[in-house]
Fold this sequence. Notes:
By secondary structure, the protein is mainly alpha-helical. The chain has a domain at 38-68. The chain has one helix and no strands. The model has no long low-confidence stretch (mean pLDDT 92).
Amino acid sequence: MGLMIVLSLFISYKLIKFLCGLCKRIIERVVYNLCSRQEFLADLKRFEHDLIRMEMLSRLKDKENSNV
């Protein structure tokens, strides 16, 4: 009887340890993907601002060239 209790506690411990490790890996992956996505969106926003700036400069040059 005592051996069954010890064995069930040991199996429960191993199962909980495995599930905690699995949850830890899943959480790490979710956090990594979220951070990567935020960095990507920040880069995309910077790129969009650069494109707008380049377009404005191009229009300004065209305007100056047409006035000359």
